[in-house]
Amino acid sequence: MTFVITTYDWVPPFAVGYVRDLRIRWACEEAGLPYRIETTSVREKTAQHFARQPFGQVPILRDGDLSLFESGAILLYLGERAEALMPRDAAARAETQQWLIAALNTLEPPVMAMALARIFDQDARAEELALPRLRERLAQLVPVLEGRDFIAAGRFTIADILLADVLRLVDSLGELAAYPVLAAYMNRITARPAFQRAHAAQVAHFAQAA
């Protein structure tokens, strides 16, 4: 069965390459899972969209009668479907899930606070307040990744998809270069052919809508 991934029909240029359907495309590309893209309007969100995603966001994954939202939940679901994305060993699975959730709950919030302050609000004071927490979290991550090729289970997993994608946003904010271990990790993970295909596909998708 082909998975259906819902994304927006258009986003502003600064968001191209960073919309979170990329995480789901990437996972499918890594595991060889068939998928297709459908769109929903970003400007005029429909009742159907809110019925499937109560917050009006993307991505949404449809697998037959099952509809899922939230990129982390979708990645965990795909991980259950493909060993290429999540190990079957119980301890390795738990470590993968731990780091996926850490990327979502511990690292991404200060990154998003910084991004919102700089890109959307253009609020220098809010940016000043957000920056120390972001830098603290990045510094705490450095010793974890020193000497590791991957964040969990000694191999590529969905946790790497989530963490590397969050670090891409850090990099776009100009904050990653100060942490060479993290920058090297991000560059290594995003050099994977599956990421390159997924990223190119998202860029092409939004280029058609421009």
UniProtKB/TrEMBL annotation:
**Is Transferase one of the keywords UniProt gives this record?**
yes
Q: Its domain of life?
A: Bacteria
Supply the SUPFAM superfamilies for this chain.
GST C-terminal domain-like, Thioredoxin-like
Q: Which Gene3D superfamilies match?
A: 1.20.1050.10, Glutaredoxin (3.40.30.10)
Keywords carried by this UniProt record: Transferase
Every copy of the GST N-terminal domain together lies at: 23-86
- In Gene Ontology terms, what is one molecular function of this protein? transferase activity
Q: Where is the GST C-terminal domain?
A: 89-210
Q: Does the keyword Lipid biosynthesis apply?
A: no
Q: What family is this protein classified in?
A: Belongs to the GST superfamily.
Q: Mind telling me which PANTHER family this protein's record contains?
A: GLUTATHIONE S-TRANSFERASE GSTA, GLUTATHIONE S-TRANSFERASE-RELATED
What name does the UniProt record give this protein?
Answer: Glutathione S-transferase
Species source reads: Paracoccus versutus (Thiobacillus versutus)
- Taxonomy-wise, where does this protein's organism fall, top ranks first? Bacteria, Pseudomonadati, Pseudomonadota, Alphaproteobacteria, Rhodobacterales
